[in-house]
Amino acid sequence: MALSMASTTVFAAARDYVSIVGSSTVYPFATVVAERFGKSTGNPTPKVESTGSGGGMKLFCAGVGTQHADITNASRRIKKSEFEMCQENGVKDIIEVQIGYDGIVVANSVDAPHMNLTRKDLYLALAAQVPGPDGKLIANPYKTWKEVNPTLPATKIEVLGPPPTSGTRDAFAELAMEGGAKKYADLATLRGSKDEAEIKSLMAKLGIPENAFNKKGKKVFKAVAHAIREDGHYIEAGENDNLIIQKLEANHAALGIFGFSFLDQNSDVVQGSTIEGVNPEFETIADKSYSISRPLFFYVKKAHIGVVPGIDGYLAEFTSEKAWGEDGYLAEKGMIPMPAALRTSIGADVINQKPMTADGL
Length: 361
Description:
The two termini are 37 Å apart. By secondary structure, the chain is α/β, with parallel strands linked by helices.
């Protein structure tokens, strides 16, 4: 009886619409699916909010019940700490749905010079600390792109990018910043080391304080590689990628970081920089030759399916071939489709409402 009463209390104020939060990158894809679902079924159109991947996870994992979101979008996989937070708050059965791929672009105005960058350039331009002449890490001294790489223009480093709550920021740090930091031998060795003596020796050589020690060199490396400078050369521009594009139109000296779909939809005003000789394009992201690309996801509370009307219908719409298929309407919006076999496998897990496990997190 107590359990029955608790369940009734949790779901007492039932909603008649699906509540979706999370990633600004996934937002346009989720929005078009929500609109199609609403029009084709006559059900209320799901409410989609752009809160950033990290912000969405906090809202999603806060608890079970209609006062909490049903689905959260993410431009990177759920973190182990977030999965554990969900479990602690009673969000036990979570359905993980990978929906496709996206590239992270470093773009500027079409009226500005096209940039040819490497991940090493991005690391040196944006990291809080970089290796100095003697190999020790120093506060980032670089003010212009030419100081980073003599082949680049002598314009001020000014990059508009996402805040720490953003999945795009997380993915950029992992793919671009780590990729650049690994070009330095000591940092690359630190990343792969699990030998305590070697880690301490490398930390001393790099000038990393002893209190930053971790038995896994990878964690010490990440603390260095992921730290973005805070001296005005990197400007946090919030979770609104359209706002970044507007600012790039107004400031031709600036670069902006956002998902490929926003480049694809605004190619008349912004252009994507070449990264290590490869342009950000549909084909290069699909075949993984563009180095800064990542999978996209959303997560569903199984406990809300059948309680909040429309969740199962929304899932069916999103995982239909007309939506996420090779010729689907999401591809037209700039999302890179997954291979057919992977779509079939994930689609089956959605139909069977198969909860994810913590394996691999």
